[in-house]
Amino acid sequence: MRARIPLIHGPTPIVRSKALSSMLGVELYIKRDDTTGGAEAGNKLRKLEFLLGDAIDRRATCVITCGGTQSNHARATAIAAAGLGLRCILFLRMGDAEGRPEHIGNMLLDRLVGAEIRPTTAQEYRDRTRIMTDAAHALEDAGERPYLIQEGGSNGLGALGYVEAMRETRLQLDHGIAGGGIAFDVIAHACGSGGTAAGTVLGAGESDVAAQVWSFAVSDNRHHFEQIIARIIDEARALDPSLTREARLVVDDGAKGPAYAVMSEEQRAFLVRVARTSGILLDPSYTGKAMFGLAQAVARGAIPRGARVLFLHTGGLPGLLAQGPNFEGVL
Ligand SMILES: *Cc1c(COP(=O)(O)O)cnc(C)c1O
Prior knowledge:
four-stranded parallel β-sheet; six-stranded mixed β-sheet; Rossmann fold; globular; binds pyridoxal-5'-phosphate; alpha/beta; 10 strands
């Protein structure tokens, strides 16, 4: 058994949204992984149960990770690390369109829990693995025991968090939630670093939760993510060879918008419409683009009308709160 520490408040609810079902034209259920916790909530916390479990197992004193200035992963890691008494160092890519390097949104929370932020230029960030490894060596020399977590917590170990999420969903189906034991036709979610996709593909296959997983890319193209997800799937299987089955993966890069964390006008208006129709708050970097992509896939007939769809709401509220000025024109 792998070391896993309890961080999430689960099982997270699965809710049927009548309003969004009619807006999108599918039978839409939402798994509220935006409620995996308090301020630390979101999909990253499921990966961190395994990653920080491993860190504690190895007697780490300090965790190192990276992301954009408004990284949800960096914030979840910082808060969870503070709760475990671990020092946390974050390499954050400055100059992103998503937010100024100010104490707002995720970065405010990072600072509140005492994470050490090391600002990184976009150029330096390309070498993030080397930069983090160098920092780890320097910390070792200073007597710390550092534990390095890759971008988004996306490796084979982190992906096991979504294998677990699918086991949790299977139990919910068996208890009669979301129409009884029948599997979903499609699981839809936002894809940023590939770990959620890899774990969901393996878990949905293992636990018979859905035939297909639609991963909506929020930045890079389909080919890029297909390769990354395949690698993470291999890593997860090396850790747990019993994961032989997989759901069919569809990477859709048609809704990635103008740039990472930047929405088109149409996408922004969609996010506002979803909020006003359903009370479901999506974020501009991930979930807003994924649900927009889902709506488009149904509209063009790639996902059949009336399909049973489970949308993974992966969180991201602090990032939305950091983008207030971008919404002035549409409110
Ligand atoms: C990180 C993140 C994702 C993407 O998950 P990956 O495992 O990195 O692909 C989706 N939604 C939100 C809100 C996230 O923070």
